[in-house]
Design a protein that fits this description.
The complex is a heterotrimer. Chain A is of the alpha/beta class. In chain A, 28% of the residues lie in helices and 24% in strands. In chain A, the strands form 2 sheets. Chain A has a 6-stranded mixed β-sheet, sandwiched between helices. In chain A, strands 2-1-4-5 form a 4-stranded antiparallel β-sheet. The two termini of chain A are 29 Å apart. The relative contact order of chain A is 0.19. Chain B has a domain at 48-184 and 194-222. Helix content of chain B is 72%, strand content 0%. In chain B, helix 4 (79-110) crosses helix 8 (194-232). The termini of chain B are far apart. In chain C, helix 2 (26-46) runs antiparallel to helix 3 (50-76) and helix 6 crosses helix 7 (164-175). The chains are: A alpha/beta, B mainly alpha, C mainly alpha. The interface between B and C is medium-sized, with 26 and 21 residues.
């Protein structure tokens, strides 16, 4: 699948511009998607297309629905209205159909996904065991945590926990990488780690969607900037 | 909603009709229970059984309805099935409570004890009652209606296993409670005198009608509650109401 | 998913849960001593009549295992929440495999609790008669397995709720009554050399029912915990 960044920019609002091509489907396509819980509407009328090779930045005020959008893209939430496909699978589809695509999606969320009782080493090895992706080399060394591999995650700082999550991603390359504030808690020296992971994904014909409030650190990588405002996705103001 | 609109609402009419039928049947059942001959050994206390036995059967029916509609919900994801399931179980809990209370009062007269540990059915009914209180509590503590429907459906299915345990406990454990007289493993051979079967049947019909009426009312209330919740939810996304901090001096 | 992959996932969850438990140590350091305390306090409330204590000893053991064990399995059998859960879902973990793995790990923990409490009960209550050890072992294994499955099932239903610590036991303990009856009465039968086959069969049936329900409904339950 070729990088189609130029075409996709025109598909930002509405699906009407888009003619589906069997051989060249976008990685993500949401059409008029909404998400609501019993009490409140979080997202509505979201149209979004992401092509292979894109690195999409998402900004927006607190509570606008950025994290919910990422979880929809990860197929962890089902749209309550509208329709969408992620890596070719219907986001409202049956769980057994989603299993195949879920294994190609990585979400590094706002709160680190670590077992607090376990060591940093165990926190890298356990998920690798579930995925059957034995890493080559020591991923903890690559992220600079080999010296503290035996520390319990509960005692590690936010930045260290983030690095553990990135270490897991060194063992495999997702097609769709979803990052929620990846730079939060990371020191300056760890910045290139994010760049490295993002580049690996796009070079492997994948795409990245990154929520960030910090354009200085994420800006240079992005191929496109969007803003989630009041529950819908719009082109970010320049 | 105006009075006129309520009267025109077909579900409301059906509910009212069910209520009237239930009331008539209760009157008939009551009359027959009071005029039935006194029982040889138990005397007047036996009349309590015209409430006790039908309410127990009605509780089984209600909880069974809860089971079937819960399974229906999981298969079809029909919101109506969820509401009926919850309503049936809620009313089933009420009938279970009536069964327990009348059983205790009857026991006080006939055995001289409010509570008898030797009675496996009494004990298992109490356990079932507490379980279904848990069901109602679970329902209350989940706000999202889809999450609530799925979890309550699972619990409604799992919990129903207690109904056969309650019913057959008198056979499985040596116990004080008399064995089943009406629904027996060897079907057909009822051990009851015809003079008692008639009022018992009338009372059962009345209780089932009351069950249907209460479930219909409960479903209506749940529907109205959902409508109120919808009307108070704005279609505006939450994010639209978050504004930048203001009025702070720096 | 192939059966091999499914059972590998069950094994993975089982090993992971035990690892977390060994590292966290709540069962060993808190729940077990608390349950032991209950065995110690009960005679103070009932009265220290030796003959009575001899009779109620085995029943007390199982009551304590069920009441306190349920708090263990409602915690250890609960599915992960939040980000870790998302990680597992995106790694392709089958909800049914997760349910079985969690239940097995909880059962092992409960078996450990029982192994600690049983000798304590024998010392404190001095029950009479020599038990049939084979029956006791089978009853204990089938009993803790049923409790593990039940705890995992109910824990899934109360995941993420603020009221879960109060709600879980209210829903789970009534469903555990057959386990109490089967283990306690089965132990009595084993001590009086009568054999406990019918009680054991009750537990086996309960385990089967819980496995079937849990595996069939794992998908919908998993969906409702997001």
């Amino acid at each position: 699948m070729a990088d189609n960044g130029l075409v996709s920019a025109s598909r930002l609002r509405g699906a009407s511009f888009y003619t589906p091509l069997v051989s060249d489907q976008p990685l993500v396509r949401l059409v008029d998607v909404g998400f609501a819980t019993s009490g409140s509407v979080i997202l509505h009328r979201v149209d979004l297309t992401v092509e292979a090779g894109e690195i999409v930045g998402i900004s927006g005020p607190n509570g606008a629905g950025k994290t919910t959008l990422l979880r929809l893209l990860a197929t962890l939430l089902r749209p309550t209205s509208g329709s969408g496909t992620v890596l070719g699978a219907d986001t409202g589809g049956r769980p057994q159909d989603l299993v195949r695509v879920r294994r190609q999606i990585a979400l590094v969320g706002h709160f680190p996904a670590l077992w607090p009782e376990l060591t940093l080493r165990q926190n890298v090895d356990l998920p690798a065991g579930l995925r059957h992706d034995p890493p080559d080399g020591d991923p903890l060394r690559a992220v600079g945590l080999a010296g503290v591999a035996g520390v319990k995650a509960a005692q590690a700082s936010l930045g260290m926990q983030r690095r553990v999550e990135f270490a897991r991603l060194l063992a495999w390359t997702p097609r769709l990488l979803l990052l929620d504030e990846p730079h939060a808690g990371l020191d300056e020296s760890a910045g290139p780690l994010v760049d490295h992971l993002v580049t690996r994904v796009t070079e492997g014909d994948g795409a990245v969607v990154m929520v960030s409030h910090n354009p200085n650190r994420a800006g240079s990588l992005l191929t496109r900037s969007l803003s989630v405002t009041a529950g819908t996705v719009v082109e970010a103001p320049a | 909603m105006t009075r006129g609109a309520t009267a025109l609402d077909p579900t409301s009419r059906a509910t009212t009709a069910a209520g009237v039928v239930a009331l008539c049947l209760v009157a008939v059942g009551l009359y027959m229970s009071v005029t039935a001959p006194a029982e040889e050994t138990q005397g007047e206390a036996a009349r309590l059984l015209f409430v006790h036995v039908p309410s127990a059967i009605t509780a089984y029916v209600a909880l069974g309805t809860g089971l079937v509609t819960a399974a229906w919900y999981l298969i079809r994801r029909s919101a109506a099935a969820d509401l009926v399931s919850a309503a049936a179980i809620e009313v089933g809990v009420l009938f279970t409570a009536i069964t327990l209370l009348t059983g205790m009062i009857w026991g006080r007269f006939v055995w001289g004890l409010w509570w008898d540990w030797g009675d496996a059915r009494m004990v298992s009914t109490a356990v079932m009652f507490f379980f279904y209180l848990g069901y109602l509590a679970l329902r209350r503590s989940i706000t999202d209606h889809r999450v609530r429907a799925v979890r309550c459906a699972v619990l409604g299915i799992v919990g129903f296993v207690q109904v056969p345990i309650v019913h057959y406990s008198v056979l499985w454990f040596r116990t004080l409670h008399q064995g089943p007289s009406i629904i027996r493993p060897d079907l057909g051979n009822s051990t009851m005198d015809a003079a008692f079967i008639a009022p018992l049947g009338a009372a059962l019909a009345a209780f089932i009608a009351v069950l249907a009426y209460l479930v219909a009312v409960r479903v209506r209330i749940a529907r109205l509650e959902a409508a109120v919740a919808r009307s108070t939810t704005t279609s505006q996304p939450v994010g639209a109401s978050v504004s930048p901090p203001s009025g702070l001096s720096v | 998913m192939t059966p091999g992959a499914f059972w590998r996932q069950v094994g993975w969850v089982f090993a992971k849960d035990l690892q977390v438990e060994v590292r966290g140590g709540v069962t060993l350091r808190m729940a077990t001593p608390f349950a032991a305390l209950a065995l110690l306090l009960a005679p103070l409330a009932i009265g220290t009549d030796t003959a009575l204590l001899r009779r109620i000893g085995p029943g007390m053991l199982w009551l304590v295992v069920i009441l306190f064990g349920m708090t263990v399995t409602l915690r250890s059998g609960a599915p992960e929440s939040g980000p870790v859960r998302d990680l597992l879902t995106l790694s392709g973990l089958d909800p049914a495999a997760a349910f079985l793995g969690r239940s097995l790990a909880s059962a092992v923990l409960l078996f450990g609790v029982t192994l600690v409490l049983a000798p304590l009960m024998v010392v404190l209550y001095a029950p009479e008669g020599s038990p049939g050890w084979g029956w006791l072992a089978l009853l204990a294994i089938a009993g803790v397995m049923a409790l593990g499955l039940l705890g995992s099932l109910v824990a899934t239903l109360v995941t993420g709720l603020r009221e879960r610590t109060a709600l879980g036991p209210l829903m789970a303990i009534p469903l555990a009554v057959p386990v109490l009856l089967a283990t306690a009465r089965g132990t009595d039968s084993a001590i009086s050399q009568q054999g406990s086959l019918s009680w054991l069969l009750l537990l086996v049936a309960m385990n089967l029912a819980l496995v079937i329900v849990g595996v069939l409904l794992a998908g919908p339950m998993d969906e409702s915990t997001r």
